[in-house]
């Protein structure tokens, strides 16, 4: 058993470093951009000519539908649609691109609600106070609202990223050679599925533990300016 552990663990760990972590990081970064843009559009109320207002509301409806769609369907089904289904209509992606695209869109849908809630949690009085001293919408957003919203959104966004790291195991279903697929290949060779899946579970737990520690320090960093009530 020890020989199986020592021979398979380095390959599984390398697959995690080479594929699992990059997929998670890239997908989360893209998804976060999508989330912020989606949230900003959905909470804003444009003013101006009727044509602009109409198209803005149409965009809000499209983004609302996107969020609903990706939150209402399983991630595995989304991966299969993008990788196996879209080629039937002439849209084809390689496994890596299909995985990144699907994970990004899925993350963006969930994270957009987190970002929207964090921005909405900032009192309207702070917007009004910023406008009263001559700050523009963009200045208020980036200098007043975002710094506070980041602290509110950080815990759920961190949880989303940790979940995404675990969800990358689904990438094996579209032939990406990440950690779970490597463990499956070893299990097929040595006929020790319980041992191999326990090994990959321990490695996932190790990655997520490191991320949880990082989350703790990030939360502490962004909360350093909060005043504490004196008992």
UniProtKB/TrEMBL annotation:
<dbReference type="InterPro" id="IPR043429">
    <property type="entry name" value="ArtM/GltK/GlnP/TcyL/YhdX-like"/>
</dbReference>
<feature type="transmembrane region" description="Helical">
    <location>
        <begin position="194"/>
        <end position="214"/>
    </location>
</feature>
<feature type="domain" description="ABC transmembrane type-1">
    <location>
        <begin position="17"/>
        <end position="215"/>
    </location>
</feature>
<protein>
    <submittedName>
        <fullName>Amino acid ABC transporter permease</fullName>
    </submittedName>
</protein>
<feature type="transmembrane region" description="Helical">
    <location>
        <begin position="20"/>
        <end position="40"/>
    </location>
</feature>
<keyword id="KW-0812">Transmembrane</keyword>
<dbReference type="GO" id="GO:0043190">
    <property type="term" value="C:ATP-binding cassette (ABC) transporter complex"/>
</dbReference>
<dbReference type="InterPro" id="IPR035906">
    <property type="entry name" value="MetI-like_sf"/>
</dbReference>
<keyword id="KW-0813">Transport</keyword>
<feature type="transmembrane region" description="Helical">
    <location>
        <begin position="52"/>
        <end position="69"/>
    </location>
</feature>
<keyword id="KW-1003">Cell membrane</keyword>
<dbReference type="InterPro" id="IPR000515">
    <property type="entry name" value="MetI-like"/>
</dbReference>
<dbReference type="Pfam" id="PF00528">
    <property type="entry name" value="BPD_transp_1"/>
</dbReference>
<comment type="similarity">
    <text>Belongs to the binding-protein-dependent transport system permease family.</text>
</comment>
<keyword id="KW-0029">Amino-acid transport</keyword>
<keyword id="KW-1133">Transmembrane helix</keyword>
<dbReference type="GO" id="GO:0015184">
    <property type="term" value="F:L-cystine transmembrane transporter activity"/>
</dbReference>
<keyword id="KW-0472">Membrane</keyword>
<dbReference type="InterPro" id="IPR010065">
    <property type="entry name" value="AA_ABC_transptr_permease_3TM"/>
</dbReference>
<feature type="transmembrane region" description="Helical">
    <location>
        <begin position="75"/>
        <end position="96"/>
    </location>
</feature>
């Amino acid at each position: 058993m020890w020989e199986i552990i020592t021979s398979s663990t380095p390959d599984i760990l390398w697959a995690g470093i080479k594929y699992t972590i990059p997929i998670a990081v890239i997908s989360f970064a893209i998804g976060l951009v999508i989330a912020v843009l989606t949230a900003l559009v959905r909470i804003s109320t444009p003013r101006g000519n009727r044509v602009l207002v109409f198209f803005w509301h149409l965009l809000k409806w499209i983004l609302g539908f996107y969020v609903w769609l990706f939150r209402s369907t399983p991630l595995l089904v989304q991966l299969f649609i993008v990788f196996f289904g879209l080629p039937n209509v002439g849209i084809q992606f390689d496994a890596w691109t299909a995985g990144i695209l699907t994970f990004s869109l899925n993350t963006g849908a969930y994270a957009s609600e987190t970002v929207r809630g964090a921005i909405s949690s900032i009192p309207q009085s702070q917007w009004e106070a910023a406008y009263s001293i001559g700050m523009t919408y963009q200045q208020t957003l980036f200098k007043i609202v975002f710094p506070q919203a980041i602290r509110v959104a950080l815990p759920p966004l961190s949880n989303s990223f940790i979940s995404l790291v675990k969800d990358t195991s689904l990438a094996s279903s579209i032939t990406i050679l990440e950690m779970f697929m490597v463990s499956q290949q070893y299990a097929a060779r040595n006929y020790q599925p319980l041992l191999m899946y326990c090994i990959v579970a321990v490695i996932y737990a190790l990655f997520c533990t490191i991320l949880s520690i990082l989350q703790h320090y990030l939360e502490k960093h962004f909360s350093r300016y909060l005043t504490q009530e004196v008992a």
